[in-house]
From TrEMBL:
Protein's UniProt name: Iron hydrogenase
Lineage: Bacteria, Bacillati, Bacillota, Clostridia, Lachnospirales
Alphabetized Gene3D superfamilies for the sequence: Glutaredoxin (3.40.30.10), NADH-quinone oxidoreductase subunit E (1.10.10.1590)
DNA-binding among keywords: no
Keyword hit for Thylakoid: no
Organism (species): Blautia argi
Length: 155
């Protein structure tokens, strides 16, 4: 049995439960998916949301609250600030360059799924804008060239 089929069976099992939308059922389902895959892929979250009749954001909230539940595995995370002051200092230009360089998909992943890109409205570091976090480390007053150089190291 392949992974996709196994995940589908897990989701269908929990969708058939008496109260599939209850948090305990959702958590049990997510844990079982993670046991099978090693993580909880976005595709599995979307399928589960559809089958259970809940928004995918429900899974996101639960996974944030329970740190043992992990979304897809990636090697690096890049968070770019898109707050007003960072935008005034060309953060959107940096974001566009990163998306083009990495060929980011609609879910924020590079094609090899090793780099995850997301944005944050404000990092509360406005004096040193534009800002970004690379693997949790804050970089202040970044330039497009600095970010692209970092991406080359990651590839």
């Amino acid at each position: 049995m392949n992974f996709e089929q196994e995940i589908r069976e897990i989701i269908e099992y929990y969708a058939a439960q008496r109260n599939p939308k209850e948090q305990e059922n959702i958590i049990a389902m997510l844990r079982e998916i993670q046991e099978t895959e090693g993580c909880i892929p976005l595709a599995a979250q979307e399928l589960a949301a559809e089958k259970l009749g809940v928004k995918r954001s429900v899974f996101t909230c639960i996974m944030k609250r329970l740190p043992d539940l992990k979304e897809e595995i990636y090697s690096h995370q890049l968070v770019l600030c898109t707050g007003e002051r960072c935008q005034n200092k060309k953060s959107m230009e940096i974001l566009k360059a990163v998306k083009e360089e990495l060929k980011i998909d609609k879910d924020g992943f590079s094609p090899d799924r090793k780099i995850y890109l997301k944005t944050q409205n404000c990092m509360k570091q406005c004096r040193t804008s534009p800002n970004m976090k690379a693997d949790g480390e804050l970089y202040a007053a970044v330039t497009k060239e600095q970010v692209l150089a970092l991406l080359k190291k990651w590839k």
